[in-house]
Design a protein that fits this description.
Number of strands: 19
Number of domains: 4
Radius of gyration: 24 Å
Strand content: 15-25%
Shape: globular
Distance between the termini: 60 Å
Strand order of the largest sheet: 1-3-2-4-5
CATH topology of the largest domain: Alpha-D-Glucose-1,6-Bisphosphate, Chain A, domain 3
Number of helices: 18
CATH architecture of the largest domain: 3-Layer(aba) Sandwich
Mean pLDDT: 94
Largest sheet: 5 strands, mixed
């Protein structure tokens, strides 16, 4: 074996020897790189975590020693699962060009690992003399301690290197710290206390601009934390809010992770989670297991009402749009990025709010949404599942700061825009940061959930998981709105959709679970159920469904 650069042969051999001795792959099945990394049953991930520690160290060396993040979490999956997300220097997700490298390294045979490490190091231009820096975080799963140690051990084989453990953190907290480490603290202080200070201070300053008592907004919210790490982070922050915002945590770790609770459960079931019995008008927020998704819900006296990522996006976009007008600033592009899961009514309302040319549909996965949003001066992106954030360009900051320092009647609006920017975690979707942003907007507008909900009326919709023998047999195009494989499936879907009033539907392979996801919407509930069940039946029968066929209700 010859890598062409002295040092990589020895490092490759050391990494392979350590991996084979402590974290062997053996005959374990291949792990595909999904939407946000690797995710499966925790018992089969030790070798993957060790090797992702190696990959993170190589990525750091290839970028001149910049800090790279590794988060051990399976997000909204059950407790028995685990996974890994890699974080690039600006706090965004691992660049897509490196995803094949991750897949190759995770799945190579033990006896070939030394060669692959050395070859990969040369391919990406990693300098063996540059000290690697990797920051590791983990969620509350019992398996996460063991798997985080495997990551650290992997980093340690790619000397010189250092691994800093943040311990138990939300995924967005890790993204925040990584970005701070690489931006000379221009984004904030790279610590958990720095995270709390940044977002709590921005919230307190923004809401202090309210000059009259609220008539409709109530500074009290109950948050379902999915029995996950969000509860840990919240408890350390909410005491500082005092009367400005009273936060009650439910599903804070006393039950199984993500079981009958959390953002994924609420979105799919369209019902309140376990432990939550909302009184009329009571405002609830809901996180997922690693606190990078946020949704709201309430009881309007008639039924459960969900305020999902589509509605959060429109609330924030409309707020920023109003402040831009009040500050007299023109020539900035405010855009809204959705995915195919966005409700048709939400898309129509978004077109009204920001203009059709500024509403973009991206592939499912926030890495695709984030990329699309960067092209805008204010890019608001959210998946319907509640994962998203807002990105602000340098041009936006320069223009708004100019107005904020100029005095006059436009100064207040410009200052509010700057404080709102400080309140948003631009690095990644962040349930805590966006929750504070939503609460600030509701307070400044003196809105309750009912007023927020009236922005538009959702078309009835359903998301259904269909277990199949091979999810990768499904291939999609057009931002995943059209299925080109299995052959003939899209034609059947099109025929079914054409018979439903205001019908729309698509199917796509899940990037995180062993299933195919079916989405359908229609003008009436009856038409929706008929359409969704028909498509589920077609997918199940055509693709070799596993287990009982799902029933749509």
């Amino acid at each position: 074996m010859s890598s062409g650069i002295p040092g990589w042969e020895d490092i490759g051999r050391e990494a392979a020897a350590s991996g084979k001795a402590c974290y062997p792959k053996g005959t374990k099945a291949a792990q595909p790189y999904g939407t946000a990394g690797f995710r499966s049953l925790a018992d089969g991930l030790d070798h993957v975590m060790f090797r992702m520690g190696i990959l993170a160290a190589l990525r750091s060396k290839a970028l001149g020693g910049k800090a790279i993040g590794v988060m051990v979490t399976a997000s909204h999956n059950p407790e028995c699962d685990n996974g890994v997300k890699l974080v690039d220097p600006m706090g965004d997700m691992l660049v897509q060009d490196w995803e094949p490298h991750a897949a190759r390294l995770a799945n190579v045979a033990d006896d070939e690992l030394a060669v692959v490490v050395a070859e990969l190091a040369v391919l990406v231009g990693a300098d063996p003399a540059v000290p690697a820096s990797v920051i590791v975080g983990r969620d509350t799963r019992a398996s996460s301690v063991r798997l985080a140690l495997a990551v650290v051990d992997g980093v340690g084989t790619v000397r010189p290197s250092s691994a800093r453990s943040l311990g138990v953190v939300t995924t967005p907290q890790l993204h925040y710290v990584v970005r701070c480490e690489n931006t000379s603290m221009n984004f904030g202080v790279p610590s958990l206390s720095g995270y709390a200070d940044k977002y709590l201070n921005a919230f307190e300053r923004l809401v202090s601009l309210v000059s009259k008592p609220s008539e409709r907004y109530s500074p009290s919210v109950t948050i379902d934390c999915a029995n996950g790490v969000g509860a840990v982070a919240l408890r350390e922050m909410t005491a500082r809010l005092g009367a400005k915002l009273k936060v009650e945590v439910v599903n804070g770790g006393e039950g199984p992770l993500n079981e009958g609770c959390g953002a994924d459960f609420v979105k799919l079931k369209q019902a309140a989670p376990a432990g939550c019995s909302p009184a009329v008008g009571q405002r609830f927020a809901v996180f997922d297991g690693d606190a990078d998704r946020l949704m709201y819900f309430f009881n309007d006296g008639e039924r459960f009402r969900l305020l999902d990522g589509d509605r959060i996006a429109l609330l924030l976009a409309d707020f920023v749009s109003g402040l831009l007008k009040d500050s007299g600033i023109e020539g900035l592009r405010l855009g809204l990025v959705q995915t195919a899961y966005a409700n048709g009514a939400a898309t129509a309302r978004a077109v009204e709010a920001v203009g059709g040319e500024n509403v973009v549909c991206a592939k499912t996965g926030v890495k695709h949404c984030h990329h699309a949003a960067i092209a805008m001066d204010v890019g608001v992106y959210f998946e319907a599942n509640g994962h998203g954030t807002v990105i602000f360009s340098d041009k936006f900051v320069e223009r708004v700061r100019g107005v904020a320092s100029g005095g006059g009647p436009t100064q207040l609006a410009a200052n509010q825009l700057l404080l709102f920017r400080d309140l948003v975690n631009e690095a990644v979707g962040d349930a805590i940061s966006i929750m504070l942003a939503v609460e600030a907007v509701l307070l400044l507008r003196d809105w309750n959930c009912a007023e927020w909900f009236t922005q538009y009326s959702d078309l009835p919709n359903r998301q259904i998981k269909v277990a199949v023998s091979d999810r990768w047999a499904f291939e999609t195009i057009d931002a995943e709105r059209k299925c080109v494989k299995p052959e003939g499936l899209q034609a059947e879907i099109d025929a079914l959709v054409s018979s439903a009033p205001k019908g729309r539907a698509f199917v796509r392979p899940s990037g995180t679970e062993d299933c195919v996801r079916v989405y359908a919407e229609a003008e009436t509930l009856e038409a929706l159920v008929t359409l969704a069940q028909s498509i589920v039946d077609v997918v199940y029968d055509k693709a070799g469904g596993v287990g009982a066929k799902p029933k749509v209700a």
